[in-house]
Amino acid sequence: MNQLVRMSHIVTADAVEEPSPSLRVPFAQSGAFVCKFIIGEPNDRAVCCGAPVQDGKSWCAFHRRIVFEPTRPGRLR
């Protein structure tokens, strides 16, 4: 069954600024409270975002929006 979803019901997410490249750290040296999103190719010299994270998450707010697809109103499962 198709559902009609009005564009006004689709809420656009607030803009989140990309973290500074100066925060990037080698993945092997990243701590517990930094974003683990890998920048570039995942290899033995991988570099992760390094931005601070909240609530013990693995990614900062900017990269979380890339990793997870937001839910859309009116979508049946």
From TrEMBL:
- The highest taxon in the source lineage is Bacteria
Spell out the protein name for this chain.
Answer: GcrA cell cycle regulator
- Organism encoding this protein: Methylobacterium tarhaniae
**Organism classification, top ranks?**
Bacteria, Pseudomonadati, Pseudomonadota, Alphaproteobacteria, Hyphomicrobiales
